[in-house]
Amino acid sequence: MQDTSDVTRRLWSLCSVLRDEGVTYHEYLNELSYLLFLKLADELKIEQLIPRESRWQALRSAPPSEALATYEQTLVSLSTAKSQIVREIYADSSTQVRNSASLHKLISEIDSIDWYRAKQNGLGDVYEGLIEKNAQESRYGAGQYFTPRPVVDALVKVLKPTGGEAVYDPATGTAGFLVAAGLFARSMSSGDLRLVGNELVHDVQRMALMNLLLHELRAEIANVDTLSQPPMRPAVDVILTNPPFGLKGSLSAEQKKQLDFPTSNKQLAFIQHCYKSLAKNGRAAIVIPDNVLFESGVACSIRKVLLDKFRLHTVLSLPTGIFYATGIRTSVLFVSNDGESDGTWFYNLRNGGPTYGKRRQLTDRDLDDFVTAYGDDPNGRSPRQPSERFHYLTREEIAADGERLDKAEKFTNDSLPQPGNLLDLTHLLSSELETATSAVESLERILAAYGLSRPSTETPQVTSE
């Protein structure tokens, strides 16, 4: 049987068909989203939603010289289709392909895949594999929208979203958290969840809708700026989110109105939106950059709210090198709206383990001990035992140190660099350099397509006379 990873690799290899035309990885995934929806509509039992003249068969049957014109007309037709899901996926759609023969080749290659067998293993896994490939290859762009699946699955396992609950991701990205939550509830036979999200970037919202659809899940994904929206009403039961890192800029008057503590730091704005959207007895897991744990000013004020008006019961320190978009240190805040904090548990997954990157990727097994230590209670109230990685500080101890929460890393011999870890780090830095070089080359191809070139960065040679 054709494994989904084989299908993913084959689809991703087809990117080379379009690379010479200056089509970026992100644009290629968009093209695949448009084409795969048409190809798989019959498997998804939704082909009746597509006008007959816009279906896969019509596109596949077009001669090589007419494939591009047929495809462009198809995109226009589908963007105004009667079906809401079809309109959402194809709204403002356009193609970056300029060569009809190249497009025809791509269509033929997609058509030759045994999709019936791929469906037996999960069409959603194929598409999610493509999203991960995109993140790996373009970590300075689309990679910011992808959270590694082992992290997503671990957070879902401990929060245990249950049928009938509303699960919200205010920075939906490609819907990894919502898909995992929906699949978890399905596996537990607990009933359907209400899956809700916001995504600012329309192309990424499109990928989210496709990801959910191919996993046979339905969700409400709005193409809006979360920070301009009021808190969710009715408030939601579960929040799972990884807001974009490194975003700063002046907020509009409308955005400032929504915040307890106006700030140009959008990560801090997202955290405020989250706690204001959480229902009584609701629970949240929020991925944050580590500076949120120790900065003064607004960051400190927000930590104090989370500790005094909510129950910030757990902080998980994540390893470096696991996020495709950035090498920034990250942690996860676990917050429950069921009282104030008596103290906080800190789990250190960062030190004493391998260095993660392309050569050694994070797996579910790496997070198994954390899931066990967290306990069965989704609000973090299970009895816990301290360990080398897991320790507890009282509310008074945290207050005595300026409300700082960067306490997961205890100084032990395990936290000192070991030769093996240094070798892994060397491999990681080499991989980062290769990725950056690839990104520059992609940009140069795009510039060349417009008759432009990158300014020279060579340092003038100084000669002595």
UniProtKB/TrEMBL annotation:
<feature type="domain" description="DNA methylase adenine-specific">
    <location>
        <begin position="121"/>
        <end position="406"/>
    </location>
</feature>
<dbReference type="Pfam" id="PF02384">
    <property type="entry name" value="N6_Mtase"/>
</dbReference>
<dbReference type="GO" id="GO:0009307">
    <property type="term" value="P:DNA restriction-modification system"/>
</dbReference>
<keyword id="KW-0808">Transferase</keyword>
<dbReference type="InterPro" id="IPR003356">
    <property type="entry name" value="DNA_methylase_A-5"/>
</dbReference>
<dbReference type="InterPro" id="IPR029063">
    <property type="entry name" value="SAM-dependent_MTases_sf"/>
</dbReference>
<keyword id="KW-0680">Restriction system</keyword>
<comment type="similarity">
    <text>Belongs to the N(4)/N(6)-methyltransferase family.</text>
</comment>
<dbReference type="InterPro" id="IPR002052">
    <property type="entry name" value="DNA_methylase_N6_adenine_CS"/>
</dbReference>
<keyword id="KW-0489">Methyltransferase</keyword>
<dbReference type="InterPro" id="IPR051537">
    <property type="entry name" value="DNA_Adenine_Mtase"/>
</dbReference>
<dbReference type="GO" id="GO:0032259">
    <property type="term" value="P:methylation"/>
</dbReference>
<protein>
    <recommendedName>
        <fullName>site-specific DNA-methyltransferase (adenine-specific)</fullName>
        <ecNumber>2.1.1.72</ecNumber>
    </recommendedName>
</protein>
<dbReference type="GO" id="GO:0009007">
    <property type="term" value="F:site-specific DNA-methyltransferase (adenine-specific) activity"/>
</dbReference>
<dbReference type="InterPro" id="IPR038333">
    <property type="entry name" value="T1MK-like_N_sf"/>
</dbReference>
<keyword id="KW-0949">S-adenosyl-L-methionine</keyword>
<dbReference type="GO" id="GO:0008170">
    <property type="term" value="F:N-methyltransferase activity"/>
</dbReference>
<dbReference type="GO" id="GO:0003677">
    <property type="term" value="F:DNA binding"/>
</dbReference>
